[in-house]
Amino acid sequence: MTPSSCAPEADDELDWGGVETFDLVLQGQRLRISRRCPHRAGRLDYGVVNADKRTVTCPLHFSVFSLDTGEQLSGSPCGRIQISRLDDPIAIFKP
Ligand code: FES
C-alpha cells in the first residue's frame, strides 16, 4: 500500500442521489465512493485501503469491500457500497 496514492484527495460532497461520497485515487484510477458503510454507517473515508487487493476495510466493524465492484467481501452481510470510476462514467456500481 502506498498511502500517499490512496489518501482521499478531496472531500467532495456532491449530490450523488443524496449519498455522501469521497474521492480516492488508486493506482492512477480516480474513484468516487459512498462515504458511509451500509452496515452501520462507518466512515469509509477513514477506512484502510489495501491497494494491492483493491479493497477498503471499514474502521467500525471491519467489513471489507471491493474497490472494483463495491461488493462486500467479508463482514456482517450488509450489501455493497456505491462506487463509480470517474475516468469511466459508465462503470457505476450501486447497491
Ligand atoms: S459500520 Fe462498517 S462494518 Fe459496521
Structure description:
By secondary structure, this protein is mostly beta strands. It has one domain: 3-layer Sandwich (Rieske Iron-sulfur Protein), CATH 2.102.10. It has one helix and nine strands, in the order αβββββββββ. The strands form two sheets. A five-stranded antiparallel beta sheet has the order 1-2-3-8-9, with no helix packed on it. Strands 4-5-6-7 form a four-stranded antiparallel beta sheet, with no helix packed on it. β8 and β9 form a beta hairpin. The radius of gyration is 12 Å and the shape is globular. FE2/S2 (inorganic) cluster binds next to loops.
Please specify the SSE layout and strand pairing:
Elements: H1 3-6, E1 8-10, E2 21-26, E3 29-34, E4 48-50, E5 55-57, E6 64-66, E7 72-74, E8 83-85, E9 88-93
Antiparallel strand pairs: 1-2, 2-3, 3-8, 4-5, 5-6, 6-7, 8-9
Structural class: mainly beta
Quickly give the CATH architecture: 3-layer Sandwich
Number of strands: 9
Number of helices: 1
Describe the main β-sheet briefly.
Answer: 5 strands, antiparallel
Rg (C-alpha, Å): 12 Å
Hetero compounds:
FE2/S2 (inorganic) cluster
Give the integer mean of the pLDDT values: 84
Low-confidence stretches: 1-13
Q: How much of the polypeptide forms β-strand, as a percent range?
A: 35-45%
CATH superfamily: Rieske [2Fe-2S] iron-sulphur domain
- Globally, the shape reads globular
Number of domains: 1
- Which H/E pattern describes the elements? HEEEEEEEEE
The CATH class:
Mainly Beta
Relative helix content:
under 10%
In whole angstroms, the N-to-C terminal distance is 26 Å
